[in-house]
Amino acid sequence: MRQLAILADKAIQGLCVIALAVAAAFIGILALIGAADIFGTNLLHRPVPSSVELSEAGLVIIVFMGLAQAQRRRAHITVDILSANFRGWAAKASLGLALISAILFFGLLAWRAYLAAEQSLGIDERSMGEISFEIWPGKILLFAGSTIALLESLRQFVRLCFGDLGAPPDGGGSAEI
Prior knowledge:
Blueprint: H1 2-43, H2 51-72, H3 89-123, H4 136-162
Helix pairs in contact: 1-2, 1-4, 2-4, 3-4
């Protein structure tokens, strides 16, 4: 059972890294589209067709595929006026409450993203720009990103409740959640 827990722990962390790599690739793609659009508009007087629509779809992918890594690093914005002073069980309870909130939030987000992706795929949703492209792959990646963030939140909650699984993440200390 312990080996299964360690395997799940590493698999979820691997998914976070893969999701971050997808987000990084889309940042590069959007940078190229934006540069081509600026170059085309200012020098050639011909903007890249559907660049705005492509950017909108790409930004959704970047944000939601990056959520899991932000959760993994505990890099979300926090207001810790009180909790910064907590020690012992109070600090653990505060972190547990935050993780339960994250699990609920990402769970609801994943559920709604699944419904949106299913509907988009069912109707073969396409953009309304000059060049029509499929929207449903972006909605599927939105669902994937929110699901990976949910899994990461669950992983952190399990580590908080049951302690170190014997495999420190990224070679770091065993105190890291």
